[in-house]
Design a protein that fits this description.
By secondary structure, the chain is an alpha+beta fold. It contains 3 helices and 12 strands; from the N terminus they run αααββββββββββββ. Helix 1 packs across helix 2.
């Protein structure tokens, strides 16, 4: 055995003896030694807190993901329906959907897409329904405009407008237009003001609209179930 190795062994033994003496006769110092050499001491209290919080968040995320597949895809009072293809005619004024009387659809039910009004059920058969959209010339309903709630009348067409707006109303591009007529959920959004102009009789203001959807691209809608 070399002298250097012998010295290392003696030093190690001496440290062990000192540690034992501290533990036996000065427990508080012995505990500090143990904390110093413990592997957990490699991380600060803040690091440990962050690690614990991450574990909790991961556990909560796992629970949400586990439940996600069991959550309903629509509200309990709504009926999800697929829109039948309109090729080759591609009319905007009406939609045919694959839900009818058997699914709880009733005439007059409100139809919407992503929370935005699309139209109203016009007729129902056993397993299909015809939806009159806001792009139909015969579609009319009272609406309100913007945060002030100015009155207007939505007039359906290929390019719907809001007419009968009092000239004293301050209506600007970007103002939201929402439903305010009987038979529709109050406040359901319809579109945004695009531009304003004076009506042909010069008695009122009128406004063109921008819509958050392309009616020709909609493939599924929600229909409000009647009570």
């Amino acid at each position: 055995m070399t002298r250097e190795r012998r010295s290392n062994i003696v030093l190690l033994c001496g440290l062990c003896i000192v540690l034992v003496l501290f533990i036996l006769f000065a427990p508080s110092y012995g505990w500090k030694f143990r904390q110093f050499f413990a592997a957990s001491n490699l991380f600060s209290p803040d690091d440990q807190n962050i690690a614990a919080e991450n574990e909790v968040l991961k556990a909560e995320l796992a629970q949400v993901q586990a439940l996600q597949s069991q959550l309903p895809t629509a509200f309990s009072n709504d009926i999800r329906a697929m829109v039948y293809s309109r090729y080759p005619f591609n009319f905007k004024n009406e939609l045919t959907v694959n839900a009818g009387l058997d699914q709880g659809v009733a005439t007059g039910s409100t139809v919407f897409f992503q929370g935005v009004l699309v139209g109203q059920v016009q007729s129902v058969s056993r397993d299909t329904a015809i939806v009159q959209t806001v792009f139909d010339n015969g579609f009319k309903m009272p609406v309100r405009i913007g945060m002030k709630g100015y009155d207007g009348l939505l007039q359906g067409s290929s390019y719907p407008i809001v007419g009968s707006i009092a000239k004293s109303s301050i209506v600007n591009a970007g103002d939201i237009v929402y439903a305010a007529g009987p038979g529709f959920p109050y406040g359901i959004p319809i579109g945004e003001i695009s531009a304003t102009s004076t009506s042909a009789d010069s008695l009122f203001e009128q406004a063109s609209l921008n819509f958050a959807y392309d009616i020709n691209s909609i493939q599924t809608v929600l229909i409000q179930k009647q009570p």
